[in-house]
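Design a sequence for this backbone.
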């Protein structure tokens, strides 16, 4: 999952990751990733936005437009960018006339089914609650819906990236498998966390130590 504010670089980073995962970051090779566009063309201005997004993607991409039923898409074995959750839930919010509970129920069920697919899914969303407080009841309801859906998806995701001014910050990643305590591992990786070295080794009194350490100002020179 990649989330963040408006124009923070979410879609760009998602597409870069998809090209890397599909082996196409250095040119066409192998299977092309899929770009799943969830936007509904509400008006002429939004249609122009969609056209600009389409022009940003070259021949390395395959595109699918799906406003609601993401779980029905043929994504098995694919690398896919789903862009974006905010526009996706907008469609439900409109169709269900602002019924937040109905939207939550259907969106959660859609993602439960989507998560069962054997695919690399890069989901783009927005952090609306970090912006200005909505001045309408519908706006406040939608902000709440976005926040709850984000939490749900982030809880299911293996990795969550937060974009700030084009810089990706990883806030969640799949933990490594627990280490077997009976396995000594690589001795070179073992390090004294205190930084004081092995206390069993004799100290050379002629060694002045690290001169970068601060000196006691009251000690005799």
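Sequence:
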């Amino acid at each position: 999952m990649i989330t963040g504010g408006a124009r923070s670089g979410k879609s760009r980073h998602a597409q870069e990751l998809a090209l890397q995962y599909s082996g196409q970051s250095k040119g066409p090779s192998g299977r092309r990733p899929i770009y799943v566009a969830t936007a509904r063309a509400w008006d002429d201005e939004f249609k122009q936005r969609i056209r600009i997004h389409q022009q940003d993607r070259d021949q390395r991409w395959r595109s699918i437009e799906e406003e609601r039923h993401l779980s029905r898409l043929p994504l098995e074995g694919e690398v896919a960018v789903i862009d974006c959750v905010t526009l996706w839930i907008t469609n439900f919010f409109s169709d269900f006339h602002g019924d937040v509970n109905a939207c939550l129920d259907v969106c959660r069920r859609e993602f439960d089914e989507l998560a069962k697919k054997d695919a690399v899914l890069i989901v783009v969303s927005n952090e609306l609650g970090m912006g200005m407080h909505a001045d309408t009841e519908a706006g406040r309801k939608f902000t709440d819906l976005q926040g709850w859906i984000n939490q749900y998806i982030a809880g299911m995701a293996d990795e969550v990236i937060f974009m700030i001014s084009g810089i990706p910050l990883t806030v969640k990643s799949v933990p490594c498998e627990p280490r077997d305590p009976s396995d000594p591992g690589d001795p070179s990786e073992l390090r004294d966390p205190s930084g004081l070295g092995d206390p069993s080794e004799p100290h050379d009194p002629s060694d002045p130590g690290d001169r970068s350490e601060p000196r006691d100002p009251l000690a005799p020179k």
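Residues 2-172 form a domain with the Rossmann fold fold (CATH 3.40.50.300).
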